[in-house]
Design brief:
GO terms for molecular function: 5,6-dimethylbenzimidazole synthase activity. This is 5,6-dimethylbenzimidazole synthase. Pfam families: Nitroreductase. This protein is α+β, with helices and mostly antiparallel strands. It has one domain (5-192): 3-Layer(aba) Sandwich (NADH Oxidase), CATH 3.40.109. Helices cover 41% and strands 15% of the residues. The protein has 8 helices and 4 strands, in the order ααβααβαβαβαα. The protein has helices spanning 2-11, 26-37, 56-75, 79-86, 122-140, 153-160, 185-188, 197-200; strands at 48-53, 98-105, 143-148, 166-176. The chain has a 4-stranded antiparallel beta sheet, sandwiched between helices. α3 (56-75) runs antiparallel to α6 (153-160). The radius of gyration is 18 Å and the shape is globular. The mean pLDDT is 94.
Length: 209
């Protein structure tokens, strides 16, 4: 069983171009969302909410915004980086079966959130843990997930009617896929390479070996 967990962790990919568009069965979506909702959270605040987006009109509006932001980023790149970036697909908003927007509500569990008094971002980290649970559960169910980050929070908040004070943390494209790539897209397209684990591990203090 433990080997299955490690296999899912290493098989997980940020999916862009492999979505089939086939529907996600209701029971599968419920299991994935239940896994996300089971994530640990600071002070048991459970500061997340999940907005399930199926509307074609909403997805098209978001897709247009994402690609305007892509052009903004592309214009900031040097020539060689721009050429590499041009080969990279950044989203599967229209191709995926549905999208899930995960939010963070800093007021949830307040006014005194146990464990957050010294680290204000602990609540935001909790929403990220829910996202990771969702992603791993989806992978185990044979679904792909793609995190879209080319957007302005204000735009997405208005598009989905998210209340003031609630942050949209992630737009996740979700659905069945033809396959999961063995090598992540950014590595395959030469954008960046992974760091060896040894470079990320320090003993007792920074730089310790």
């Amino acid at each position: 069983m433990i080997h299955d967990l490690y296999e899912v962790i290493h098989r997980r990919r940020d999916v862009r171009g492999e979505f089939t568009g086939e529907p996600v069965p209701g029971d599968v979506l419920d299991r994935v969302l239940s896994a996300a909702h089971a994530a640990p959270s600071v002070g048991l605040s459970q500061p997340w909410d999940f907005v399930i987006v199926r509307s074609d009109d909403v997805r098209k509006a978001f897709h247009q915004h994402v690609h305007a932001e892509r052009e903004t980023f592309a214009a900031s790149l040097a020539a060689e980086a721009a050429r590499r970036f041009a080969r990279i697909k950044i989203d599967g908003v229209l191709e995926s079966s549905l999208s899930i927007v995960v939010t963070y509500d800093a007021s949830r569990g307040g006014p005194a959130v146990l464990g957050r008094h010294a680290i204000a971002d602990a609540g935001l980290y909790s929403s990220c843990l829910a996202i990771q649970n969702l992603w791993l559960a989806a992978t185990a169910e044979g679904l792909g997930v793609g995190w879209v980050s080319f957007y302005r929070e204000e735009f997405l908040r208005e598009l989905l009617g998210i209340p003031d004070g609630v942050r949209p943390v992630a737009w996740l494209c979700v659905g069945p896929v033809t396959h999961l790539e063995r090598v992540p897209d950014l590595e395959r397209h030469g954008w960046r390479q992974r760091r060896p684990l040894g470079e990320a591990v320090h003993a007792d203090r920074w730089g310790g070996s």
